[in-house]
Write a structure and sequence with these properties.
about 325 residues, about 40% strand, Immunoglobulin-like, 6-stranded antiparallel β-sheet, mainly beta, 20 strands
């Protein structure tokens, strides 16, 4: 009857559909992949004009062979870190204090700071290798070495930082040895990539100052019958915009009124002054110190110390000296 024929035909169509679905089902497959845990970050701490090194790492994990075949997977990984928000288009990376000043730095794959780490497409490429035995993922750290370049003079009014670095970890894998891809885009049995972000690169700049002084030598003279004059210099360098003061103590032989040089014949009185006319004594209290502010370029300031020896005809012949301490306040 027509009903039987139609029913039979429907059953045949159903069986055919079931057979097709069974053939289309995917076979179990292994997903060899790597990923980065957390974000990359680096803190240089306190930086001076001498520069500073710091180290961090990119923590990554790669998958093993879960198939039961007992294969070790050999991963070649290529690590890239792009420029942050203030470094794009610049010859070096840079942090800012968000007040118009920049602190220059770079990231390297080696502690000697010779191989830069750049964005995808740059060379040399930072490559690391990881062998993963069967059954258990393996985690490792790819070291990242930072260097704030020396010789910089920047304001110390705030901390410096850079955000927005985009990282990329490419990988290739094989079971008979490490792939040898120039940039981890080809080779081996396969591969892929994973992105990661940055928690920022940070530093504070120490507005440390330094001071250096020369000797004041009145020369080889006879006992002074007239005023003797001499000069010395004090050099000061601080971070741009730093106000400072320089004081000079009274030396080792002060008599309560005058500085004195000591020698085999006793003492020779002298004095130090802020001005060429020898009217303003240079001392170490707030009313007698030299004052200044470092310019916006951080240039060295040279101060002149004016010395005077009053007439002292009864001084015995000999050599006379004194030692003083110049102090920089900032």
């Amino acid at each position: 009857m027509p009903i039987d024929r139609d029913f039979s035909s429907w059953r045949r169509r159903l069986a055919g559909a079931a057979l097709f679905a069974g053939l289309a089902a995917p076979l179990p497959a292994l997903a060899q992949s790597c990923y980065v845990s957390g974000a990359f970050g680096m803190n240089f701490g306190t930086v001076t004009s001498s520069g500073r090194a710091a180290s961090s790492s990119v923590n990554h994990t790669c998958a093993p062979d879960y198939s039961g075949a007992g294969s070790t997977f050999y991963y070649q990984l290529c690590l890239y870190i792009g420029p942050g928000e203030w470094s794009a288009g610049q010859p070096t990376r840079r942090m800012t204090n968000y007040n118009g000043a920049y602190l220059l730095y770079d990231l390297f794959s080696d502690p000697a700071h010779t191989q830069l780490i750049g964005a995808p497409g740059t060379t040399p490429v930072y490559q690391v290798f990881l062998a993963v035995p069967p059954g258990t993922p393996r985690t490792a750290d790819a070291p990242v070495h930072g260097w704030v370049y020396p010789g910089q003079s920047v304001p110390a009014v705030a901390g410096f930082q850079e955000q927005g670095h985009q990282g990329l970890l490419r990988y290739r894998y094989a079971t008979t040895g490490y792939p040898q891809s120039p940039d981890c885009t080809t080779g081996g049995l396969g591969g892929g990539s994973t992105d990661f972000h940055s928690s920022g690169v940070l530093a504070t700049y120490d507005n440390g100052c330094w001071i250096a002084a020369t000797d004041l030598d009145f020369g080889r003279v006879t006992p002074p019958l007239v005023l003797l004059r001499g000069t010395a210099s004090i050099r000061v360098q601080c971070a741009p915009g730093t106000p400072w003061k320089v004081g000079i103590d009274n030396g080792q032989n002060f008599d309560g009124e005058m500085r004195r040089m000591a020698g085999v014949g006793g003492f020779v009185k002298y004095q130090l002054f802020l001005d060429q006319s020898l009217t303003r004594v240079w001392g170490n209290d707030d009313t007698s110190v030299a004052r200044g502010t470092t310019d916006t370029s951080g240039n060295i300031v040279t101060l002149t110390v004016y010395g005077g020896v009053s007439p002292q005809p009864d001084v015995a012949a000999g050599s006379y000296t004194d030692t003083l301490v110049a102090t920089l306040y900032y």
